[in-house]
């Protein structure tokens, strides 16, 4: 997939922005606050209908305006042109158009424009809590498997409804496991089964890619892997029965806490460095290299599964890695995939003799006050 042009209206600091990218390496540079990350964020919106930064969609609208719009023109590996347009307005919410047709379900766009985002914020994958790592695997699966995406969305929806019901029961002092809850639980059990099955399959095959990439990217003589500690820790054959029993057995406790305390929404994912959890032993640099390896592996893994090249969005790469690693990654990724990299310091490329011509680089200088 290649992004040819991007147009932005009232998107953060942009009133109107128009960019034409090349198919290889694009370097976006400018001082702090000039709109570099915002550009990558807009592309991420087109791919996954949301930002990779914290906050709501409304936060993205330029001051005092009522809406924002993003238009992207892409060409896929079969040379087919694809246009994606995402609009958000304070009154009408979000709409997504694929080749000018509005999608009934916005999430139908997910998987069509595969992107990988690496930004300082994504370091939370190796350093943060279990939710962030679950999201990492969910993001990969959502882009390659529609069945998983639907199961995950429906599962979350029913957990939310169940929790509302639990709170109502607490208020009304009901603690009988009744038909309403049982109906929700039966639906949850089916979706949970799909989630459990797909997660474990994905992690097993993802680890093979990660091992190879980590060997290439780092000089550490360590094995790395993703490990899942499922909340329902049984084989698939017994999964449905065990989950059913647990939901019923924990029902009174769930009412007390007002939330469902069992299920794959509570799975733990660990990143093993050697055979230990990187969160407790990893040095600063080890965290960074592992994150980069995870992201590179995510790219390779998605490509293998959907037969389409991913677009790499590398935000503030120099803040993430030392110069040698940065250059190696840009040379490798930038030759194989369309890559957009942002930096506040373009001179670093020149200082370290990066050959702009050889790697077919297009540069975009964002001046202060640009938009
Ligand atoms: N909703 C909004 N309306 C107007 N301006 C906004 C909005 N949201 C963010 N901004 C501003 O947009 C500018 C661009 O932000 P962005 O994060 O893209 O900068 P950047 O070039 O990546 O900077 P840095 O080098 O510091 O990472 C910032 O000045 C930010 O305060
Ligand atoms: Mg930035």
Helix-strand blueprint:
Layout: E1 2-11, E2 14-20, E3 25-30, H1 36-48, E4 67-75, E5 81-89, E6 93-98, E7 101-102, E8 115-118, H2 124-127, H3 130-144, H4 146-171, H5 179-217, E9 224-229, H6 236-249, H7 251-257, E10 268-273, E11 276-277, H8 278-281, H9 284-306, E12 311-314, H10 317-320, H11 323-336, E13 339-343, H12 347-351, E14 361-366
Helix pairs in contact: 3-4, 3-9, 4-5, 4-7, 5-6, 5-9
Residues 36-37, 315-316 line the site of magnesium ion (MG).
Q: Look at the structure and name the CATH superfamily of the largest domain.
A: P-loop containing nucleotide triphosphate hydrolases
Low-confidence stretches: none
**Radius of gyration using CA atoms only:** 22 Å
Strand proportion:
15-25%
Average pLDDT, rounded to a whole number, is: 94
Which secondary-structure class do the elements indicate? Answer: alpha/beta
Number of helical regions: 12
- Describe the biggest sheet? 6 strands, antiparallel
Kindly give the count of domains: 2
Q: In CATH, what is the class of the largest domain?
A: Alpha Beta
Give the tally of β-strands: 14
H-E string: EEEHEEEEEHHHHEHHEEHHEHHEHE
Unique bound compounds: adenosine-5'-triphosphate, magnesium ion
> Can you tell me the CATH topology of the largest domain?
Rossmann fold
- In one word, what is the shape? globular
Q: Strand sequence of the main sheet, in spatial order?
A: 2-1-4-5-6-7
Tell me the CATH architecture of the largest domain. 3-Layer(aba) Sandwich
Q: Oligomerization state of this entry?
A: single chain
Helix content: 40-55%
């Amino acid at each position: 997939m290649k992004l040819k042009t991007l147009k932005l209206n009232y998107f953060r600091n942009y009133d109107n922005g128009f960019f034409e990218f090349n198919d290889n390496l694009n370097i976006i540079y400018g001082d702090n606050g000039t709109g570099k990350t915002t550009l990558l964020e807009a592309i991420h919106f087109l791919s996954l209908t949301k930002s990779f930064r914290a906050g709501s969609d409304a936060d993205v609208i330029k001051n005092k305006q009522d809406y924002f719009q993003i238009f992207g023109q892409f060409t896929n590996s079969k040379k087919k042109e694809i246009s994606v347009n995402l609009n958000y307005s304070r009154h009408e919410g979000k709409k997504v158009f694929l080749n000018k047709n509005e999608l009934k379900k916005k999430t139908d766009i997910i998987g069509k424009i595969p992107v990988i985002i690496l930004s300082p914020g994504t370091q939370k994958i190796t350093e943060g809590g279990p939710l962030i790592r679950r999201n990492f695997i969910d993001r990969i699966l959502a882009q390659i498997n529609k069945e998983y995406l639907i199961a995950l969305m429906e599962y979350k929806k029913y957990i939310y409804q169940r929790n509302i019901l639990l709170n109502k029961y607490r208020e009304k002092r009901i603690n009988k496991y009744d038909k309403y809850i049982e109906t929700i639980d039966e639906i949850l059990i089916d979706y949970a089964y799909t989630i459990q099955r797909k997660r474990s399959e994905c992690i097993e095959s993802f680890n093979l890619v990660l091992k190879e990439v980590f060997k290439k990217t780092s000089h550490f003589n360590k094995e790395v892997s993703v490990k899942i500690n499922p909340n329902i820790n049984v084989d698939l054959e017994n999964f449905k029965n065990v989950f059913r029993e647990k939901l019923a057995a924990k029902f009174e406790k769930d009412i007390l806490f007002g939330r469902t305390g069992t299920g794959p929404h509570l799975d733990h994912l660990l990143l093993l460095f050697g055979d230990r959890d990187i969160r407790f032993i990893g040095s600063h640099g080890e965290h960074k290299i592992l994150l980069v390896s995870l992201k590179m592996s995510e790219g390779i893994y998605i490509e293998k599964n959907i037969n389409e090249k991913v677009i790499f969005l590398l935000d503030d790469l120099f803040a993430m890695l030392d110069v040698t690693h940065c250059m190696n990654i840009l040379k490798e990724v930038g030759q194989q995939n369309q890559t957009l990299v942002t930096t506040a310091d373009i001179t670093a490329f020149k200082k370290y003799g990066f050959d702009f011509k050889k790697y077919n680089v297009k540069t975009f200088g964002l001046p202060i006050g640009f938009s």
